[in-house]
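Q: Sequence in, structure out?
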Amino acid sequence: MSTLLFRAAPLRRLPLAVLLPLAFASTSQAQSLVDIYEMAKGHDATYQSARSQYEANLAKADQGKAALLPTVALSAGATRTQLESYAIKGSPAPTQDRPYTTQTAGINASQPLYRPANLATYRQSQKGLELAEAAMSQAEQDLIVRVSQAYFDVLSAQDSLAFVQAQKAAVAEQLASAKRNFEVGTATITDTREAQARFDLVTAQEIAADNDLRVKSVALELLVGKAGLKPKRIQSGAKLPAVDVQSIDNWVAQSEQHHPGLRQARANLDVAKLETEKATAGHKPTVDFTLGYNSQRNINGTAVTTASTQANVATAGITANLPLFAGFATQNRIREAAALEDKARSDLEGAQRQVAQVTRTAYLGLQAGQGQVKAYEAAEASSQVALEANKLGYQVGVRINIDVLNSQSQLFQTKRDLAKARYDVLVGQLKLRQAAGVLKAEDLQPINALLAP
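A: Exactly. Output:
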């Protein structure tokens, strides 16, 4: 397999005013890909939202344990009553008009012994942990790809601007040559006008390339929340990292096992099954163990006696409850849960198909990208030879000025396409690992090693 190399853009023809900013941009406070990724982790709103959701899901998962643990409550109260009691005519009951106070305090505990719905809720909460971890993993992988794409978009835009400026300088030389030849009578005015038209076209392309660089830089700055970023460039002559040569079926198999989206879909199916169990539990009995200690103090008696008393009551028991009829609510709840379980199963099947398609697309895209790099490298060499041949032919009179201009345009377009194809291969490797669900922050290190120190 041929070696894929990064080569420096041909800046030897650029004016000094263009070279100096590029030189300073590549050395003054430049950031590597890993540096920008770490900054993005602390600023990107999408990632921060996913992290907050992850923490909320962890707390929600812990709530499921509460249904299996005992509940303990402490209660206290005081009531003052004004009693007025009068005898009915002919009754021997005495007349009363007096106040009395009732004070109560107690502690009561309950421990579920058999509550199948509570057990299903707890198991659902544990599946919630899996959902939270999968969602967080998906957010991290998405951030890696978004940062890498934005990073190399900026480098690609810088290369495009540099190539357009180099092409502009070359066309300017050709325009000056055409004017000199016209003045001495060795060329027609057509050559001058063709060169001027090409120069004006390249000037418009330069403006567009400069604007594209500004837009791509703003997109990268939004990810990290800092302005004036200067991404480090790829070292001249650096080799592309070796691509994992697994077959496409192996990558698809990895995606079925590790992809966060599929892990979430499987967990959702398990949660749906447990929801069906919870609904079915509506027909089952519940058993609780209860324990209590309560005290009541009656000051100045009660409604039936004037003696002050205090009663302390300790209780322990088992309470069982068997539902008999709930207005068909349980039956309908079971039907609803069963339908939602079927939906979750279909969602999982759809997610498996989509992930397999995305993985195959990423694999084929990476393979095509590598082939394009090789083809563009050959096209670059051929375009360079063609340009030199056309220049020589123009000098001896067998080629016209437009031939040289077309050769220059083809050469610089090929250089732009080659640079972009190399960046696409680097990002394509990350996208393939993301599609397989195995992308990690450590996968940035081989790419980071290609950057200038």
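Confidence is low (pLDDT under 50) at residues 7-27.
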